Structure to design on (284 residues):
């Protein structure tokens, strides 16, 4: 089980299909397994970073959403404000014309000859005056709307300042995260490359195939007698063989390469047993 892999084959047994690697005396099997475990950690982190990088434009877009929303609201208010200003100007113009009209009517007072003409004149003045009052009311109403619109615009501009600041902060954070991820990615790719050359070539081919088939998870830990990749219970004999690590074995169901990581308790147990065995030897 030591050294360079010189033979690789697959076969089926009672416990499922298996991989066999026979090694010469250079690189221990456990080291090859350890390389693959580390390689998978690099691969998963690289995948995570690349995935996060893909999502960055969306994250920027999400951070920008409140800014776009407030900007849209402000635009609507500004258009409404412009329309109100036009309405106010038209109303003031109409009011001015109506005032002139009232003055003109009043100016005709000296031309009146009969009482009937005078009564008709008074009626005409009254009508013109009422119309002028209605225009004044309407202009006043528009002026109030203009004031309200200006106040709303001021409030929204304050809000705009806040969301602009929040967006700038979020964008800076995302850019700084992106830069740090870029640096991490570059380091990981270098370390990944350095590790790859240490892995047995055929094993690496197998690992790469499994990685693409199993969404980046080619190696799976055996936990509580089950494969942590597909979560299916493994035959006890296979579990025992994985623990012995005399050969590289794969899961009977998902074909991931299996490894066993002793729990701290198991390490203490094995150390205790070893120390007890030493004691027995010393006594003998
Ligand atoms: Zn599995």
């Amino acid at each position: 089980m030591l050294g360079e892999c010189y033979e690789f084959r697959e076969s089926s047994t009672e416990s499922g299909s298996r991989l066999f690697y026979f090694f010469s005396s250079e690189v221990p099997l456990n080291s090859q397994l350890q390389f693959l475990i580390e390689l998978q950690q690099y691969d998963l982190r690289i995948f995570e970073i690349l995935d996060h990088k893909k999502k960055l434009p969306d994250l920027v877009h999400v951070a920008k959403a409140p800014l776009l929303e407030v900007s849209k609201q402000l635009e609507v208010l500004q258009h409404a404000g412009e329309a109100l200003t036009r309405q106010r100007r038209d109303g003031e113009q109409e009011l001015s014309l109506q005032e002139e009209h009232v003055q003109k009517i009043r100016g005709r007072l000296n031309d009146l000859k009969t009482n009937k003409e005078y009564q008709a004149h008074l009626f005409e003045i009254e009508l013109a005056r009422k119309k002028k009052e209605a225009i004044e009311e309407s202009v006043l109403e528009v002026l109030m709307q203009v004031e309200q619109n200006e106040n709303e615009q001021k409030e929204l501009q304050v809000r705009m300042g806040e969301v602009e600041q929040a967006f700038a902060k979020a964008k800076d954070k995302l850019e700084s995260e992106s830069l740090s991820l870029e640096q991490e990615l570059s380091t990981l790719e270098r370390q990944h490359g350095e590790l790859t050359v240490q892995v047995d070539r055929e094993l690496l081919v197998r690992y790469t195939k499994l990685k693409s088939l199993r969404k980046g998870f080619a190696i799976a830990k055996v936990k509580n007698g089950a494969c942590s990749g597909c979560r299916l219970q493994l035959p006890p004999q296979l579990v025992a063989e994985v623990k012995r690590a005399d050969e590289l074995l794969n899961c009977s169901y998902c074909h991931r390469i299996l490894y066993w990581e002793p729990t701290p308790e198991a390490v203490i147990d094995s150390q205790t047993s070893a120390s007890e065995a030493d004691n027995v030897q010393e006594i003998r």
